[in-house]
Amino acid sequence: MSHHIVHVKNLQHVYPDETVALRDVSFLIHHGESVGIIGANGAGKSTLLLHLIGYLSATSGEIVIGDDRLSKETLPEIRRTVGMVFQDPEDQLFMPTVFDDVAFGPLNLGLAADEIEIRVAEALERVGALDLRDKPPYHLSGGEKKRVAIATVLSMLPEILVLDEPTNGLDPQARRQLIALLQAFHHTRIVTSHDLDMILELCDRTIVLHEGKVMADGPTLEIFNNDELLKTCRLEKPFAMQSCPVCSPDKQTSPKQSPLVAPHSGKPHDHHHDH
Amino acid sequence: MHMADALVSPAVGGAFWAAAAGTIAYCSARVRKDLDDRKVPLMGVLGAFVFAAQMINFTIPATGSSGHLGGGLLLAILLGPSAAYLTIASVLMIQALFFADGGLLALGCNIFNLGVFPAFIAYPLIYKKLVGSDPRQSRMVAASIIAAVVALQFGSLGVVLQTVLSGVSALPFDTFLLLMQPIHLGIGVVEGVVTALVVSFIYQARPEILESALQQKPLGDLPIKSLLATFLVATLLIGGVLSWFVSENPDGLEWSIAKITGTPELPEAEHREHQRLAKLQEETALLPDYAIPAEEGEAPSAATERMGTSLSGLLGGAITLVVCSLVGVFLKRRRSAQRKEA
Amino acid sequence: MLAIDGTFLDFKQLDLLALRQTPVHRLDPRAKVLTTFCFIVCVVSFDRYQISAMLPFMIYPAVLMAVGDLPFGYILRKIMIVIPFALLIGLFNPVFDRQVLMQIGSLDIWGGWISCLSILIRAILTASAAIILVAITGFPAICEALEKLKMPQTFAVQLLFLYRYIFVLTDEGVRTARARQLRTFGNRGLGIRHFGSLVGHLLLRTWERAERIHMAMLARGFAGEVHSSRRPSHFGRTEVFFMAGWITLFILLRLFNAPQFLGGLFTGTMP
């Protein structure tokens, strides 16, 4: 049952100047999964995302989203199904007011005025930005801009949410708010980030990209426990796992230190439990 | 240089508003038909870029004075004529509305001078022709300079003509012309050089940006000849309308022409002039204690009468200002009271 | 090296002022735009030696500022910007127009000074009308009003996009120029070559930003036409009264020199 799956098959992307951005990338994401995509800069994360919304066309390979194979005809439907939140909210909030931005998508879908009102109100409600409705975008704080940017996508009622570096540039509290917000969503979520701690909290499954290739694809914890892999791909463990006596025993000064005294906040060692 | 509201008469301003607005409508239709939908964000953002770039001054070599980028020609090179014209018009409109950079009546003149000449004359007829399909650096620099100089010469000529036809300023035509054209020659060269530098930078960094623009047919399928013909007709029309207006008010133009040619005024004309001036005085006098030198043979009572009338003008003016301020203050107090009740 | 700079950022305030709720704010934007347009046309149509007849026109900005709850000092600062520009042009007049039009005691007043003052008053009146219009309407609403009054939609979209990104771009421009400024010791001005590369970099980043915006637009279903959601606006009786009242007043003030009349009442001489 192809209930809004994301199936990438042997995706290849070569730039006009011959650099290979993506090499034979394949994976299958099921409905409701929360997947992180990590990798060094230039590994191909953003390129991959641009394929998912149909902005780039593949040199070879194909993408199937839901029942539709990505092609020129299916593009409009796919763009409704896949809601992408870009890195810089400044690029995403281009209308005069918050209302106009959140209404942009529904207007393009050809919805009636009263339906649009409802969609906008609901989207803003979900991100907790209802009071920002009539404000111009340049009067918003960084965190507010991010939330409104997410609302602009939510108003199209997507099945799949794709977020490119969502915590980039946010202050700690705004970041915390965003993670809480994303955790509350039931959409299929695909998130790229350098914020490995967020990936740890948010994503059950992680795909590691390196030089355009999929180096690993599996449960997040497994990936982050694989030191060899992390090193090859110019990554490291999330901070939360770095001074953990169980996860990184060699880093501890005293081996007699109680494993129950977790230096990180929250429930001790809950990242060892199976989800 | 920008035209200012202070220099333009309603007739001239209105005529050029019509011309500028008509061109906006034409270009809007053209841009709509353009299949490249990247234009929408591009025009907006490049307009903002021009705004930002104009804020950064550079020193002009050999003179030490500072200059800034106009941007009209650059926009034409990056966007093509119609899109560039719309962008220039939008930048000027926002400048006029928020920064009083000229004024709202003169906006039509400014959009015409700074939009039409770079986008529809300098770019397609000079820059593109010179650069052709071979965008070597030397060619681009030369083409930029020549195109910019031409655009600015036309632009400043436009300002001079609009000013003189308006008859508001006291500047005589020949002085103004001799002042404006040489200055704008220099400004044109600088603009051309700076535009060329930026264009070569882009060409080296991301040539595809310029390539798509170069391949466009700037005037579509419109033959150059008919465009020039239209331009000529428009000029004649504007000229005709304006002369009609001017003939209704001989004072302004006559007076400035008299100044230029130095024709000694005829005695009757002098008498007429004096009476007219006296009447004007009545309407504009603001200060007390003045006297119009009595005309020869005029009864002293007439002079007193005129003095009284002028005095009233002054008094009335003062009263008016006080009344306006009082009304404003009163209304404001009422608002605050209303708000406190609420 | 950086012109304007600080005063620029002050303009963000205008949008916030436009969000207030006062009787004039609630008026349909079309009424405000058209009335302001008539105001400007009337002021500008005075001939060059007029002074006293223009003064009553002050009442329009005064009333709007009061009822619209606009901070007087802020608006005044914005209007002050006009004055140097107006003087720059107006000061040519006394140079060329030396016809003595009146005398104060033994001092000859040239026509040039009178027309210069006239230019100044004109500039102040039109600038205040424009700024106040934005403060009580907001730029997006003005664009929408113009669109309803037959301005092409493509141009309206352009104005809105430009307005949206002016602050973003000028911030970037300021940062780039300042970064460069910090690396020049000895206060040397920016040479043309360096300007070319500085602005070139800015242009590249701008172009890339446009591409990203385009991506974001496409991702939300953009297919070439920007649809705007019409703000609910009602052109009703209030608007008709507003327009009819003010425009009648403007025409009357334009045709009859009220200050003269008023003064005449006091001095006992009627024209």
Kindly summarize this structure in a few lines.
The complex is a heterotrimer of chains A (275), B (342) and C (271). Helices cover 34% and strands 22% of the residues of chain A. Chain A has eleven helices and ten strands.
3D structure, described in words:
- The complex is a heterotrimer of chains A (about 280), B (about 350) and C (about 270).
- Chain A is of the alpha/beta class.
- Chain A folds into 2 domains: about 5-240, Rossmann fold (3-Layer(aba) Sandwich), CATH 3.40.50.300; about 245-275, no CATH class.
- Chain A has helices at about 45-50, 75-80, 90, 100-110, 115-125, 140-155, 170-185, 195-200, 220-225, 225-230, 240; strands spanning about 5-15, 20-30, 35-40, 60-65, 70, 80-85, 160-165, 190, 205-210, 215-220.
- In chain A, helix 4 crosses helix 5, helix 4 runs parallel beside helix 6 and helix 5 (about 115-125) crosses helix 6.
- With about 350 residues, chain B is mainly alpha-helical.
- In chain B, helix 2 packs across helix 4 (about 80-100).
- Chain C has helices at about 5-10, 10-20, 25, 30-45, 60-65, 70-80, 80-90, 90-95, 110-135, 140-150, 155-180, 190-220, 235-255, 260-265, and strands spanning about 100-105, 105-110.
- A two-stranded antiparallel ribbon of chain C has the order 1-2.
- The N and C termini of chain C lie far apart (about 55 Å).
- In chain C, about 50% of the residues are buried.
- The model of chain C has no long low-confidence stretch (mean pLDDT about 85).
- Classes of the chains: A alpha/beta (about 280), B mainly alpha (about 350), C mainly alpha (about 270).
- The interface between B and C is large, with 113 and 123 residues.
